[in-house]
Automatic annotation (TrEMBL):
Species of provenance: Porticoccus litoralis
Keywords: Cytoplasm, Disulfide bond, FAD, Flavoprotein, NAD, Nucleotide-binding, Oxidoreductase, Redox-active center
GO BP annotations listed: 2-oxoglutarate metabolic process
SUPFAM superfamilies: FAD/NAD(P)-binding domain (SSF51905), FAD/NAD-linked reductases, dimerisation (C-terminal) domain (SSF55424)
Name of the protein in its database record: Dihydrolipoyl dehydrogenase
Listed EC numbers: 1.8.1.4
Amino acid sequence: MSDKYDVIVIGSGPAGYVAAIRAAQLGLKTACIEKWQNSKGQGVNGGTCLNVGCIPSKALLDSSYKYHETKTSLSTHGIATGKVGIDVKGMIGRKAKIVEQLTGGIAGLFKSNGVTSLFGTGKLLAGRQVEFTDHDGKTQVLSADNVIIATGSQPINIPVAPIDGKTIIDSTGALELTEVPKRLGVIGAGVIGLELGSVWNRLGSNVVLLEAMSDFLSIMDQQIAKESQKIFTKQGLDIRLSCRVTGSEVKGKEVVVTYQNSEGEEAQETFDKLIVCVGRRPYTEGLLAPDSGVNLDERGFIFVNEQCATNAPGVWAVGDVVRGPMLAHKGSEEGVMVAERIAGQKTQMNYDIIPNVIYTHPEIAAVGKTEEQLKQAGEHYNVGIFPFIASGRALAADETEGMVKMIAHAETDRILGCHIVGPSAADLVQQVAIAMEFGSSAEDIGMTVFGHPTLSEAVHEAALAVNGHAIHIPNRKKRK
């Protein structure tokens, strides 16, 4: 093993492995350090996202929806089925195969691009040196012209519900359940709580989500959030807002959760399993030597500038470990930007246009500003809304819940944001993200020819509705 590199990346999640591949493509001698081990004790790349996050959760979301649809909705299409069952172990096994395929894929990409893959832990020392300790405990000091920190994040634990790995579990444990719990409690009704809650709700659990905030999905446009809450409640999710958990007690195979409800009264609920998903925090344990020169901000994130450079020359940080939304795609693009800047390019990243997605069914997706943010900033804007119930393609697919909401500047008509709850929301919002990247107006989208019948037409109609020109719904009177 060489001990001198152009670039050393610490962490091989979506931010780290993408940074390593791009750096190698640019002719830089690159190594990537990863501490993750699979159940067989082998080093694997991919970080949280591929191993216990984005990918396995989507596998379970899709499997559980297919079961739910077969059991409850296929008769709508005239399809008759016999008794429908669910093999949870088989579902978890499928998820594991997908994870193995993708993590193995990164190993192949590292090999084809010439990235040196090192399994173990990395600690940043002074002068761009990295202390690498392999899984056998053998230590070596490596040096690099540039170091990219991409160590990601980990679930936040709360003292009122300590994880025991059996009855009280975190998001990782929730992906490994081999039986459907009859009563499932979820602390936190954010992105992760909703996704995991909806998986087990479809499979037959009675799911209660306890959320401390008074607003549902406070980061999302509130019109879309309220519509989403209605849809999820109809699906059987019991979402309780303004509920602060104050304690939990495991009794045999059950857990009794005590919380303060929205009326300020103490209440209790008993569950067979309790998932704690109240957010994530940056992972920096054992990462930085005191003289590394890298500073943390007041929330424990590594302090970086707009180009992801830290205070230490030649040291960069990307992904969940730095400011900004904890999104895999945001981390990946930061990884590309840093690799290209190391290679002498002037790459910049547009932080104003990062799509955000919740993979429930229907999906929720957003890009740009919410109506609440624009009101607060005193911006003048117009809104166009198109419900999926008016879409021929959505009707044909029996996917009519939700809407597209487009927001454009009142004077310039430039698109400021798009918010969707409905079928294929993630892919639809990406169309608007591309348009926004090119500075499009609502009229630009309105004048674009969309295929018929497609779900995309809902985006087209919402853009037309911004200026009162929608064809397939009555137009709202414009505000004076």
